[in-house]
Design goal:
Blueprint: E1 33-34, E2 71-76, E3 82-86, E4 94-102, E5 105-112, E6 119-123, E7 131-138
Parallel strand pairs: 1-2
Antiparallel strand pairs: 2-7, 3-6, 4-5, 4-7
Length: 147
């Protein structure tokens, strides 16, 4: 993993292990799972297996051949506007999109759909203090994936 010392706050999501489909509690935007930002990456396992689509909640992501079966996360951007997102899965089939706004009124900030794009640094002071939403799904498949 590569860390940038100039970043004050880091948000990381990386694959470690599998989670059962019964644990999908963040299937809908209103139930987005809060992520805690820290100074170091913390590896956490998640899944979208068993998740369903929620029509009309957000425009389809601009990448990753979205077919449904997404899960949602939320976090507050740090005062510096600096954070990092990392994600991986088997075959790099997990995808993500980052949004500003609120459920039903989203603006996509970035969409990540391949191995080297699934990790990214953000440095945008205009996002400071804003609640952001992270959506994850499986590439070209609504059945979900562990990531």
């Amino acid at each position: 993993m590569m860390y940038f010392k100039s970043l004050l706050t880091v948000c990381c999501m990386t694959v470690l292990s599998f989670v059962s489909a019964q644990s999908v509690i963040n299937d809908n935007c209103a139930d987005a799972l809060p992520l805690v930002l820290g100074d170091e990456c913390t590896l956490e396992p998640y899944t979208s297996v068993g998740a369903t689509a929620e029509p009309g909640i957000a425009p389809n992501p601009t990448c990753g051949a979205y077919q449904g079966g997404d899960v949602w996360f939320t976090f507050e951007a740090p005062a510096s506007g600096n954070f990092r997102i990392e994600m991986s899965s088997a075959g790099s089939n997990a995808q993500w999109a980052l949004y500003s706004g609120s459920c039903g009124e989203f603006t996509q900030i970035r969409c990540a759909s391949s191995g080297n794009q699934l990790s990214g640094n953000f440095s945008d002071p205009s996002l400071a203090g804003e609640t952001l939403y992270l959506r994850s799904w499986r590439f070209l498949n609504a059945s979900g994936i562990d990531f």
